[in-house]
Write a structure and sequence with these properties.
By secondary structure, this protein is mainly beta. The chain has no helices and 24 strands. A four-stranded antiparallel sheet has the order 1-2-3-4, with no helix packed on it. The radius of gyration is 17 Å and the shape is globular. 43% of the residues are buried. The model has no long low-confidence stretch (mean pLDDT 81).
Length: 272
Amino acid sequence: MAPPGAGAFRTVTFLNEQTGFGADEQGAVWASIDGGRSWLIRSENGRGILDHPLQIEFLDDWHGWALTEFGVWRTEDGGATWRGSSLQYPDGPARGARLHFNSLESGGISDFHGAIQRTEDGGKTWTWHLVAPSKAAIPGLFFTDQETGWLCTEAGEIYRSVDSGATWEPQRGPIIRAASFGSIQFISNLEGWVCGAQKTGTKVGAWDDYKGILLHTMDGGQSWERIDVESEDFPATIAFTDSKVGWGANDPGIFITDDGGVSWKRVLSFSK
């Protein structure tokens, strides 16, 4: 089954082609074992704790992290219970835009002002680093290992770090006028994707004036190829499990691709 009212899902993540997790508006955690076609509630204990979740991420079936408008939370029992880290936002809303952990201890959180915070002790302490001089929001953050990290900004920028996020260097990609990136992900040190949108019209705030952007690299970001996406529905966030199979999500629903992002098929629609 799907979450009640299923505009409910605020965030989804997948471990592989079949296993995924989602969190609804009230913080209940859901799980799928059939590629997102049906969902069962994993725990309602997040309600009242994970209210207004921005993102959840699981390292395996049991260990996961959640970013909400008011702080960062961790689970070690598949989402049944959650405990807060030292990084909290009591006055809300959170400045965090995106989180990514590549181990139980090592991870980072980006914000809406061009900076990230890194932890190497499972969220007990955090170190702040300014990344983007433009101070653009950083909605995409991904570490391929403990040293190598990638991020993208809403100003259409891509950055790379090779020292655990202490310093970041801008990367040269295709010049795309009026581009805004929203998600970045790698499946190895060499292969990764960036997705976003490009404004094509002049109407202020009109979403039909935007078209989707998907960039792909096979050489660790030295060069990026723009993929011509055939689908009208285009995901705002992406997560690939291999070179062909990936997942995406946006307001209308959850999508899957099996051709490296050229086409996307909706597997779950969110009702309003």
